[in-house]
Amino acid sequence: MISVRELTKVYRQPARDVVALDNINLDIDDGEIHGIIGRSGAGKSTLVRCLTLLDRPTEGKVIVGDQDLTGVTDTELRNARRRIGMVFQHANLLSSRTVADNIAMPLEIVKTHKAERRARAKELIDLVGLSGLEDTYPAQLSGGQRQRVGIARALAADPDVLLCDEPTSALDPATTNEILTLIRSVSSRLNLTVVVITHEMSVVKTLCDSVSLLDDGKILESGKLAEVAGKVNSRLSRALLPLPTHELAAADLVLEVVGKQDAVNVPIASHIAEENPVTVHITAANVETLGDTRFAHYLLAISSAEQINITGIEATLARHGYSERARAKEGVQV
């Protein structure tokens, strides 16, 4: 549905040029919810603006469906944008308009008949769980309700793509979960392709099917959630499967390992000790489900009176479905 090719955005400045996006390549499938995560200043919001051509890329292509938005006329671009809904960090509702009128505003702009606007607004009010509030004004709504209105407004023109720029960062945890559940439900029911820009890994873990890590204007890692979580030495994996705070542990060898699916049920520390002349202690552990895949992440402190056979331990890990993430040098404390 969305294909970005060699996308670069440079802001020309008198003192020096600022490269906000640097050769971005990205593919997002139909009906997929894709998270783009990065710290502040990584280029996330610039990428959103370039996806809609609110900011025109310096180089590269943005293809939505089968249409290259960087090569169309202004009229064609305006029509294409109607197929892309936008949800922002703050709903930015018009205070003088009711819930129904705010939702219907995109249809009013394109001169849709009044009766049709009302019917569409009513349909979307029901969809986002605001039944009975159609005549309410934004000042009378909670933050979560206002964001629901913003989502409904983004859906008014029946888009194919929904772009969400930090849609929950201004909300409390309980309301955040409600909004994320709503976005996933809407995506499933309407077969929407969703792109979520966020700096919160919890949003990615709860909502997304796939994820990209954006840093300093570049995509460093990208893939399906279950795939990137299981990769050895992946920054995304470390963020998706964080270990709890743990005490320093002295050992001859420290291993950080990840297993998934059936491997989660394997007592891997016991197997290492049984198959190798070593003592193994679990220093920290985390077991989580991402999407439909269960993962186990362990930090293992390994000691032995003999020289440790690294090859043997690695063979045990591989045999039981575990990948070695990192190995500390002998004598290192973790």
From TrEMBL:
Highest taxon of source: Bacteria
Keywords: Amino-acid transport, ATP-binding, Cell membrane, Membrane, Nucleotide-binding, Translocase, Transport
Membrane-crossing residue ranges in chain numbering: none
A molecular function (GO) term: ATP binding
CDD domains: ABC_MetN_methionine_transporter
Residues annotated as domain ABC transporter: 2-241
PROSITE patterns: ABC_TRANSPORTER_1, ABC_TRANSPORTER_2
InterPro entries: AAA+_ATPase, ABC_transporter-like_ATP-bd, ABC_transporter-like_CS, MetN_ABC, MetN_ABC_transporter-like, NIL_domain, P-loop_NTPase
A Pfam family per the record: ABC_tran
Keyword Translocase: yes
SUPFAM superfamilies linked to this entry: P-loop containing nucleoside triphosphate hydrolases
Descriptive protein name: ATP-binding cassette domain-containing protein
Organism (species): Yaniella flava
